[in-house]
Request: fold
Amino acid sequence: MREETGLVVDPAELTLAGVVNGARGVAASNGFLTVFLVSHAWSGEPVNAEPHKHSQVAWCPVGQLPEGFAPASCTALVNHLRGGRMMATRGF
Reply:
């Protein structure tokens, strides 16, 4: 979490929101696994620690997600807010 956002989270505070298993991706020609985790407790202030990968880090209302928000991230977030989890495969 710290590597990409600057936030520090106790692993005990994490909840699984979703998983995507992909056959290939832009930066992962041999496949990838993305795990979406949720925490309601953290320390630090969010920063865009990987600007070469992400355009911004921002707090926003769920109904007003920014343009370009990754579809899988959006699905995982919405499913989490509805009390469920997401599992998806891509490109198999």
Remarks:
- The chain has one domain: 2-90.
- The first strand starts at residue 15 and ends at 22.
